[in-house]
Each structure stands twice: as structure tokens, then as C-alpha cells.
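Record type: monomer structure entry
Structure origin: computed from sequence
Chain ID: A
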Amino acid sequence: MRSFLNVPLDPASSNAYDAILASGADCLILEAPDNIEIALSCCTDMKRHKASQPIYLRLKANASDEMEDALAHIAASNLDGLLLDHCESGRDVTAMDVRMSAAEAIAGRKIGSLGIIAQVTDTATALFGLGSYKDASPRLKALTWDADLTAKAIGATVVRTRNGSFIPPCQTARDLCLIGAAAAGIQAIDTACPDHTDLEAFGREAMEAKRDGFQGKWATCEKQVTLIQQIF
């Protein structure tokens, strides 16, 4: 998988689904609302529109009391996996693997059929756990990072310098995500570039990511997806 596109959960019409599915993104990520059933309904609608790419749902790794109920609904749905944000070590992935296996068994779904993508630099603690993802779970497909959440976690006032490069702590987080993924033998996916109007700058950033060893990148619009597919 090379391109990852966030999907609005309640598009105004079926035409919105058509545009999303026609984007060519390798993976679609649904943002979890307060009511998880809304996200699962969106997934069902997109599958009905003949979505061929995997559809993942974003959830926090630090499970709440309602997590078992959520996983029961997820295992019974046609979702393809979870993007776990705020992962602090491979232990979070392993713990979620156990919960997912139980939910799959109860739902009569093949054990291990739900994949995991871990977002691994969202807290300061997480940066010290990036060597722990090897063998955390056979479900684990990739590590990724979020520059905005990394900056927020360390108290930084900006994410990038005036010339557009990442501030040093964010650059360190980027490098550690890449190295952690290599150590685990899985894909590394680069963070999003929020300015979807400057495609030239986005293209440069994507080429740098590929040069450094990333195998894919987040997109915030269909035009960015096209560039990612061309570059990676």
C-alpha cells in the first residue's frame, strides 16, 4: 500500500463515494465518530459501491471500557482493519491483537483477517518504544506517524520551519518511525502534508520520503493520491 486517504464519514451523496473510490488510493481510513456504527455504515455503503481497496477504521490504542463492544461490531462488519493511533509500544499492538482475535472468534470471522496499522509518535513516551514492534503481531502491516500530534505531544508551537522542513524533534520522530518499521520488517508510511493546494511542495516531500525509505504517504485529497501513486 502506497497512498492512504482519510474519508469523510457522512458524505452528502453517493457521488461523494464515487469520487473517493475513484481517487485510486490504496487504503481508505475512516475517522471514528462517537457512534462507531456510523463508521461501519459508511464502510458498508462504500463496499456496496464496489470499493476494491482496504478500508480501515481509526481507533485509539489505549482501549476504553467500550472497546469490546466496538470490536464486536467491527469483527462482524466488512472492515479490513484498524489504524491504531497513540500506540506507545509493540505491547499496545499485541494487546489489541488478542482482543481482535476474541472478537473475530465470536463473530465467526477468520482469526487474523483484520489488519493493523500503528501510528507510533503521538506521545513523547511512544518515541522510546519504536524498537518494540518486531513480532508484535502478524496483523501489523505498517508504522506511520503524525507530525501535528508529535509536535503537540512535546509542546512545540510549530510543526515546520519557515522553509517548510520539519522542526528537529519532528524530524527525529519521522526518522525513528522509519527505522522502527525497518527493524520490524514492515512498511513505513510518511505523515500527511496539510496544504493540499501546493502540489509542487507535496511532490518534493513525497520524493524525499521515498528516497529515505518510506513506502507510502498520507494524502488529504485526490490530487495528492495521484502524485503518491506516481512517485512510489
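Annotation 1: The beta strands are 3-7, 27-31, 55-60, 81-85, 115-119, 140-144, 187-190, 216-219.
Annotation 2: The mean pLDDT is 89.
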